Amino acid sequence: MNKRKLKNIKKESQKKKLESARAEAFKNRLVPVDKTKLNLGNSYETPPDYYKDIDFICVDCGSNETWLAEQQKWWYEEAGGYYFATAIRCRNCRKIEKKRKAEARRVHLNGVKMKK
Questions:
Q1: What is the pTM of this model?
Q2: 29-64, pLDDT tens digit by residue?
Q3: Which are the contacts of 60, defined by CB distance < 8 A and separation ≥ 6?
Q4: Is 76 buried (19+), middle (13-18) or exposed (0-12) by CB count in 10 A?
Q5: Which of 19, 30, 69, 89 is least surrounded, with the fewest CB atoms within 10 Å of its CB?
Q6: What are 2-28's pLDDT values in tens digits?
Q7: CB-based contacts of 39: which residues, under 8 Å, 6+ apart?
Q8: Cα separation of 83 and 112, whole Å?
Q9: Residue 90 CB: number of other CB atoms within 10 A?
């Protein structure tokens, strides 16, 4: 082999190592927690210093899902969600559940109107 081919092979090898290292870092990424924004309720437990991706199985459809660290940060710190609550439904099943609850609420309120 000539020097140019060896150099290209070495570059490709380094590129693959860098890509796999980046993928591993992305897989194990951590997002810092701002403890002043958390809704801990009446708990003595201390929250972790970082959010990390959490794998879960949807209770409705059974699909394997991942609750990303960034999504957790938004839920707990921006939306004010209770810190010890966790995701149980995938995005599609959450939409379906939201529609079901809205319809049940509508039916209930119509029933209350009719009683008056």
A1: 0.65
A2: 788 899 888 888 888 888 888 999 999 999 999 999
A3: 89, 90, 93, 96, 97
A4: buried
A5: 19
A6: 777 777 777 787 777 667 655 665 666
A7: 76, 80, 81, 82, 83
A8: 35
A9: 21
